[in-house]
Amino acid sequence: MEFSWSVADQKFREELHDVIVDAIPEHWANLIPGEEATSSFTMDFSRMLASKGLLTPHWPVEYGGRDASGWQFIILGEELWSAGEPRGSQYMNVNWVGPAIMHAGTDEQKAYHLKRISDGDVLWCQGFSELGAGTDLASIQTTAVRDGDHYVINGEKVWTSYAQGAEFCFLLARTDPSAERGSGVSIFLVPTATPGFTIVPFESDLDIHEFNRMTFDNVRVPASTMLGEENNGWKVIKRALSHERIGGPRYERALAVTRRMADTAKKRGWWERDGLRTRFVAAEAACEAARVLVYQAIDAREKGLQENLVVSLARVAIVRSERLVADLALDLFEDESLYRFSTGNGQFKTSMIAGLGGGSVEVQLNTIARALLGPGR
Amino acid sequence: MDFSPTEGQATLLASIDAVVESRGGRERVARVATSLAYDGELDAQLRSTIDIDSLSLLDRVLASDRLAQAGAATTWASRSIVLGNGNSVEGPLVVVDRARSGLTRYAPFATAALVFDGDESRLVQLEPVDVEEVPSGAGYPVGRITDAAMAGGQVVGGAELRNRWMLALATEAGGLAAAAVTLTSNHLQRRKQFGKPLAQFQALRHRVANHAVSAESIRWMVRFAADHEDERAMALAAAYAGSTAAELSPEFVQLWGARGLAHEFGVSTYLMRLEGIRLELGSRDRLAEAVLTF
Ligand SMILES: Cc1cc2nc3c(=O)[nH]c(=O)nc-3n(C[C@H](O)[C@H](O)[C@H](O)COP(=O)(O)OP(=O)(O)OC[C@H]3O[C@@H](n4cnc5c(N)ncnc54)[C@H](O)[C@@H]3O)c2cc1C
Question: What are the tens digits of pLDDT across the range B219-241?
Answer without folding.
Answer: 999 999 999 999 999 999 999 99
